[in-house]
Amino acid sequence: MPLDVEFSSSSPQGVPSPIRLQAESISIIYDRSPIGAPLPGSDPILIDLGQRVVKIVIEGRVNETGTNEVEGATAISDKDDLEQIARLWYNTTITCTISADQYTTKLDSLRLTLLPGVETVKWDFNLQLVGFWANPP
């Protein structure tokens, strides 16, 4: 059963916004990165600024270019939409909605792999985003 992820951007620049992606797996990693400063001859100083970084990895399969479907006002993405997001939203803040949780993110990387030997052209994708939790509990 595909998992729905919705993306929107304040400056879509050629990509429909919002756009929905049907993923096969989603990983959300909450990361804290305290700063450690070693001191010669004594214990290191640890500074925790309390910042939480979210890393989101979304994986799945999309159809070839030109196979967009629309449900309501939201487009379900295909390969060319993912490429447009990678090219045009690279320096843009992307709001990623998974279930009821919203994350404010930036694009980290996109990997597309062509699947051999299938009747219709399909692409596996791995989309990585980095950001913060927009509405923590």
Summary, kept brief:
By secondary structure, the chain is mostly beta strands. 7% of the residues lie in helices and 55% in strands.
Notes on the protein architecture:
The protein is built from one helix and eleven strands, in the order E-E-E-E-E-E-E-E-H-E-E-E. It has 137 residues and is mostly beta strands. The strands form two sheets. A nine-stranded mixed sheet has the order 3-6-11-10-9-1-2-8-7. A two-stranded antiparallel ribbon has the order 4-5. Strand 10 and strand 11 form a beta hairpin. The relative contact order is 0.24. The model has no long low-confidence stretch (mean pLDDT 79).
Query: Helical residue percent?
Result: under 10%
Kindly estimate the percentage of residues that lie in beta strands according to DSSP: over 45%
Q: Strand arrangement, largest sheet?
A: 3-6-11-10-9-1-2-8-7
Q: Distance between termini? A: 27 Å
The structural class is mainly beta
Question: Which whole number gives the mean pLDDT?
Answer: 79
Number of strands: 11
Low-confidence stretches: none
Taking all Cα atoms into account, the compactness measure Rg is 18 Å
Describe the largest sheet: 9 strands, mixed
Number of helices: 1
